[in-house]
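B., you asked whether I could sanity-check this one before it goes into the benchmark set. Here's the sequence:
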Amino acid sequence: MSGDGTELLNPPEITHCFVCGSDNPSGLGLHVFRDGTDAVATWVPDERFQGWADRLHGGIIGLLVDEMLVYAGAPHGLWGMTAKVRYWLRKPVPLEGVELTLRGRLVQSSGRGFRAVVSVHSGDVLVAEGEGMCVLRDDSPRPE
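And here's what the prediction gave me:
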């Protein structure tokens, strides 16, 4: 997925992140793009991420929500680290023939951090959602 087709948000210097690192052979390989003021990505699970028989493990959904919280700040020039996250599994996700669409949206920011929400869809079906707080990294610009 290329969002609006203009900007990959993955930092080029972070290549071994388990979720978004391009050089981590054990990782998820998530590519995150700008879509207006949101961060978006798609991801296709496989049998490596199985929980219950033929279902995606709920903890993997948690990893994706956590990652998209951080990326929700990126279209605004904010980079943080997750301080608090919670998520809700709404529907089981099968491992075969599913493409998940992830969307992170910044909802509030301050000089210390930001709050964001995340949705996870399989087609038109909401399968999970989450919210959380990120603290700004020392090298992130501070909103006024």
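One thing to flag: The two ends are 32 Å apart (CA to CA). Otherwise nothing jumped out at me.
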